[in-house]
Amino acid sequence: MTIKNARDEAIKKLINSPTAQLDADVLLSHTIKCSKSFLLAHRNDDLTDAQYGAFMSAIALRQTGLAVAYITGHKEFYKLDFIVTQDVLVPKPDTETLVEKAVEGIKELVRNKMTSTGKAVRTAETTKQNEGGQTDDTLRIADICTGSGCVGIAAARELNECGIFCELTLTDISSRALEIAKQNASRLLTKAQFERTAFVSGDLLAAISPFSLFDAILANPPYVPSDEVTELLKDGRGDPALALDGDTDSALGVRQSSDGLAITRRLVVQAYERLAQGGVFFLESDEYNAKEAAHLMKKAGFVRVETHCDLSGKPRVTTGRRAASFIFCSAAM
What we know:
The chain is of the alpha/beta class. The protein has 13 helices and eleven strands. Helix content is 42%, strand content 18%. The strands form three sheets. It has a seven-stranded mixed sheet, sandwiched between helices. A two-stranded antiparallel sheet has the order 1-2. Strands 7-8 form a two-stranded antiparallel sheet.
């Protein structure tokens, strides 16, 4: 069986997938450990029986509706390769907007800090030289409902490449999701970054010490209405309902609303309370509830509330600041 024939067979089997050709290429590349360009250049090469069998098994899983990333165990996000399992959501391209806006906002925060104090935030190099404890020029970031860790890790990497080192806290109510985030952090962050990353299992910001404040809080919480979650998962994609359902109190297992905003309502209030003076909140929401998310942030006390669109032009990320002078927090974790 040649690569071309196996690929053609797979595409025919994936007739119900809107991305059949791409699915076949990704799964075949994963199976024989090669690039998609290799498949094209070597389309007349023969597969071994083992390779063909493994490829057809992967195609059979895709036929059930299971997301390609859950079959391969990997997903590219923000040009980084993340491990994914069915304990976490597959990182979506739309969520890259959340990372982009967070990096932009945090860089602005740092510029204001340097202008007002004449001091720079810590870099990875100065952190190595000062292992004795935290200082008040440390930038502290929390990624809430972290899942695979893609948002917080990608932002920390980008900031570090810009010379901005941060202490990162990743939280999730799912301990299994948090384990995946830890695996990704150990693979994708520098040794210094990983050593300054905390992994906290629990409900939103309540999982973190009440004495900890942050300069930036990033969040992509569940925001799909409960009734829509049931319909959404009928296609067999395999996403964890816990990471989608925005109506059910994940700590109590009790449905609180029908608009997908129950978790967001709690999170917005907590975020305002846990931001340092001048701190910034970056929140992803669905296009249908972005307006309400902005209203909730203004009601909680946030200023400079803005909603930003993703690459498709749909409202996706809402940002807001806790008004005050730009002072970095020094509370211990």
